[in-house]
Design goal:
The structure is a single chain. By secondary structure, this protein is mostly helical. Among the domains are: 84 residues, no CATH class; 89 residues, Membrane-bound Lytic Murein Transglycosylase D, Chain A. The chain is built from ten helices and two strands; from the N terminus they run ααααααβαααβα. It has a two-stranded antiparallel ribbon with strand order 1-2.
Length: 262
């Protein structure tokens, strides 16, 4: 009897396997009993397949979690060893991290300022650089977490320095200020280079006819720093040529006067 039952079950299973799965567009209510069994069997196979994939993913997650936990432990052991070599504890590291973070925030704020604002805030930039240098002297700065941040921060702070633009200069007296175009151009807050004097001369031809003569109280316009223009170079060459010719003429006149006296 059992053999007969198994036989019929086998025949039924074979008939299901040989039967064609109904199209997915056909509503469940219109399925025949055989089609419904096939659809249920198909969905169960899909569910079983997804469950198998889920089990495999969960197994991989468990394995990866163990690997990650081991890596975290190794990292913590390495960090503890480094901290021990530097003579620092977790509280010291946290305090250093906080100071560095505050400094980074200040630098970010200053990077939003205009060039003129930065030029007027040079003392603040210098204070930031001093704070960073103080942090760099701490051995904790050698920890990889902070090392590259400090290098980037140092570069950012250097980039905050702006030269204050001086657009004009009031001439003082020779006795007190030793003001001439050469000396004015050589002032560090102006050009820091006396050879740039033709720039001032050419920008003020309306009040400075002879570059050797300027008067106290004159307000000179100061062009931006930079290489001398072709016009400035041309004017400079003309000045030195005329200066040389005048000296040669003076020497000749002096020589003739001496000869005539003898």
């Amino acid at each position: 009897m059992k053999k007969l039952v198994y036989f019929f079950i086998f025949i039924f299973s074979c008939s299901l396997a040989l039967a064609q799965l109904p199209p997915s567009s056909k509503p469940d209510m219109e399925l025949t009993e055989e089609e419904a069994a096939l659809r249920i069997q198909d969905w169960q196979a899909k569910v079983d397949g997804l469950q198998s994939q889920l089990d495999m993913v969960n197994t991989n997650i468990s394995s990866l979690k163990k690997s990650m936990d081991a890596a975290k432990k190794n990292l913590k052991d390495c960090q503890d060893a480094i901290h021990g070599m530097l003579g620092a504890n977790d509280a010291d590291i946290d305090a250093f991290r906080q100071k560095l973070g505050v400094l980074e925030g200040k630098v970010r704020q200053m990077k939003k300022m205009s060039n003129d604002e930065l030029a007027d805030s040079r003392d603040k930039v210098e204070a930031l650089e001093a704070q960073l240098n103080a942090l760099r002297k701490n051995k904790i700065a050698l920890i990889p977490e902070f090392f590259n941040k400090i290098l980037t921060l140092a570069k950012d702070i250097k980039g905050l320095y702006r030269e204050k633009k001086i657009r004009s200069y009031t001439v003082g007296t020779w006795a007190e200020d030793r003001d001439c175009l050469w000396n004015i151009s050589g002032k560090m807050e102006i050009y820091g280079d006396p050879f740039q004097w033709p720039k001032i001369w050419q920008a003020n031809q309306d009040i400075v006819r002879n570059p050797d003569i300027i008067h106290p109280g004159q307000v000179l316009t100061l062009p931006p720093k930079g290489p001398k223009t072709s016009e400035e170079l041309k004017a400079e060459r003309k000045y030195w040529r005329q200066k040389r010719e005048a000296m040669e003429t003076e020497a000749q006149v002096g020589g003739e006067g001496t000869t005539g006296g003898n």
